[in-house]
Design goal:
mainly alpha; NAD(P)-bd_dom_sf; 39% helix
Length: 31
């Protein structure tokens, strides 16, 4: 999935799966 330059809204991003998702998306270039 190409996410470079895209914007994602992740709920529950403070802990757990949400936090891991945010880190992964950010490492792929997502904002």
């Amino acid at each position: 999935m190409k996410v470079d330059g895209k914007v994602a809204i992740v709920t529950g991003a403070g802990t757990g799966v949400g936090a891991a998702t945010v880190k992964l998306l950010a490492s792929k270039g997502c904002r």
